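Thread: "does anyone have the structure for this chain?"

Original post by V.I.:
We have the sequence but no experimental structure in hand. Need at least a predicted one for the grant figures.
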Amino acid sequence: MKGYAMLTIGQTGWIEKDIPKCGPADAICKPIALAPCTSDIHTVWSGALGDRHDMILGHEAVGEVVEVGSEVKDFKVGDRVLVSAITPDWNSIAAQEGYPMHSGGMLSGWKFSNFKDGVFAEYFHVNDADGNLAKLPEGMDLGAAAMLADMIPTGFHGVELADVQFGDNVAVIGIGPVGLMSVAAAAIRGAAEIFAVGSRKNCADLAREYGATDIINYREGDIVEQIMAKTGGKGVDKVIIAGGDNDTFAQAIEILKPGGIIGNVNYLGEGDFVKIPRVQWGCGMSHKTVRGGLMPGGRVRSEKLARLIMTGRIHPEKMITHTFQGLEGVEPALMLMKDKPRDLIKPLVLL
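Reply from O.Q.:
Generated one for you, C-alpha cells below.
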C-alpha cells in the first residue's frame, strides 16, 4: 500500500509498505476522510518525539472497515466509522485507573504516527476496535466527522481539565481548531465571559460565533494587560492553553485568579522547560493549578461528542477552509498546516 510518511526529522515523502495485519480484537480500515494536524508538523519538523524513520503520518481519519478480527463484536466489513486519534488499550491497568491515554506508558494511548503507522495511507490498523471505533452517524458531514478524531475531543478536554463551571470567566489562548473547540465547549459548559486570544480574522469571527465574548489580539498589545484591564484587574477563573509556546504558561499564570485552574492541551514541540513566574504564582502558594493532559480517546467519547454535532450544538465543519480530493491531497494539505497561510483554519482530504 502507499502512505505518506516521515522519512526522518525534517523530511517527508510517499513510501510503499505492506498492508497492516489484523489481530483478533482489531480492525483494518481504509480512509474516507483525512485531516492533517499541527502535531504532525511538530513531529516532523521539530523532532518533538525524536527521530522516526519511514513512519506513516496522520491521526485524524474517518474510515470504512475492510477487515475485523475474530473477537470484534460490534463492527463489520463495510461499516463507516469514526476513528479517535487516541486509541488506548482498554483492558490496561492505566485505563482502569482512569487514564486510558497513558495505557502502556506516558502518552502511549497515542499510537498513530507515534508508535505505529498513522492514517495517511490506503489502509490503517485500529487496535481494540470495539473500544476505539464508533459508527459514523447517518447524514453527518464528513468534515465534522473528521474533527471528531482530535480537534473536538482535545478542545473539549482543555475545558474539562480547567473544570469550567457556570458563570466562570475564561480565557482561551490560541484559537486554531483546538482552541475554537475549547471556546465552543466553554460556552456549552456555561462560561460567562470568554476571552479568545488570537490574531487571525477568520478564527476570531468563528470564535465569536462559537461563543467568545471578547477577542484579545496579541498583535495589538500584551495579552496580560488587555485581559487584566477587561476584568478590572481581577483576572479570570479559568484558562485553557490551546496554542502558543512554553512561555505561554507565564502569561496564563498572570491572568489567572488565585484558586483558578489552567487546562493545557497544547503540544509543546520544542524546548526543555516550562517556566512559571514565581511572584505571580504567589511564591508557590497561590492555589493556581496547572493541568496538562492528552485527551482520553475511545468509543463512548466519540459517540457523545457526535451527538452534539447531530443536535446542532456545535458546528465543527465551519472550521474547514480548504478541501482536497484523493490520497494525493494529503501532501498539499499537510504543507498548508506547515506554512499556515492567513486564510487557513483546517484542511480536509476526501477520498
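V.I.: this helps a lot. The longest strand covers residues 256-264.
O.Q.: and The chain has two domains: 2-150+295-350, 155-292.
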